[in-house]
Design brief:
Blueprint: H1 2-13, H2 16-35, H3 43-64, H4 66-76, H5 78-83, H6 89-117, H7 125-138, H8 140-152, H9 155-172, H10 184-190, H11 194-206, H12 213-240
Helix pairs in contact: 1-6, 2-3, 2-6, 3-6, 3-8, 3-9, 3-11, 4-8, 4-9, 6-7, 6-8, 7-11, 8-9, 8-12, 11-12
Length: 241
């Protein structure tokens, strides 16, 4: 499985479109959101919170986008080749999830670097390290969601569904705008969405506290849901190809 993971990482990182748009767009959005309209009294706090939200958005987009490549592989017959290997469905899904997790790092790190070097966000060294590790690890449920979509849907449909998932989860999860600005019922709903709890890993770190037990439980629940979806989608694709 190690060779399979290495192959998938190399294939993804060789794609210039992934590197440019996957990492560049979140940075551009972050700088626009935090530097248009002038700096208020709470500018430093907003730039830090927005940095976490946009880093989470970039990581989420890279994770979910994994499904588009899988759907294209499916149409080219790559999945048929995988099925003649000794790897079980769980190992195939796990291997793709691990390789995709590596490709999440460029988008995540690009926003954090922009926050520190361009917007002057100041955190302790341990906070930068914890922020990177937690957001990187926390993106796994979204990687599994993208994998499930890729195995279950056609290449054209996967792209559309992934964009819908990315935009919907980002907006409702409060990655672009503070949840506190939402109506009461929507704010309550947002706190149980995977994107909101994913970003909460970073927001709690920048505040100098550990993630809450609720955050861990909610993310673990979504990890189980999306993981089961990915495995069942892979098994379903085996019956249809």
């Amino acid at each position: 499985m190690r060779e399979y993971i290495t192959l998938e990482v190399r294939r993804t990182l060789r794609d210039p479109g992934f590197v440019i748009f996957g990492a560049g767009m979140p940075v551009l959005m972050y700088l626009l959101f935090t530097n248009i309209g002038g700096a208020g009294a709470d500018a430093a706090e907003w730039r830090t919170a927005s940095m976490v939200g946009m880093a989470a958005y970039g990581a989420l987009g890279a994770a979910v986008g994994t499904g588009t490549g899988i759907a294209e592989d499916k149409s080219l017959g790559w999945l048929r080749q995988l099925r003649i290997t000794p790897m079980s469905p769980r190992r195939v899904v796990l291997g793709r999830a691990i390789s995709s997790s590596v490709t999440v790092l460029p988008a995540l790190l690009a926003v954090l670097v922009a926050g520190g070097l361009v917007n002057g966000v100041r955190l302790a060294l341990w906070q930068w390290a914890a922020l990177t590790v937690l957001l990187w690890a926390g993106a796994l449920p979204f990687t599994l969601l993208g994998i499930g979509n890729g195995y279950r849907l056609s290449a054209q449909t996967t792209g559309v569904v992934n964009v819908g998932c990315l935009m919907g989860m980002s907006v409702i999860g409060g990655l672009w705008f503070p949840v506190e600005a939402f109506p009461g019922w929507l704010a309550s709903l947002a706190r149980y969405t995977p994107a909101n709890r994913f970003a909460e890993l970073g927001w709690s770190t920048t505040a100098g506290t550990a993630p809450s037990a609720t955050t861990v439980v909610v993310l673990a629940g979504w990890l189980l849901v999306f993981g089961s979806y990915a495995v069942s989608s892979y098994r379903r694709s085996a019956r249809t190809l």
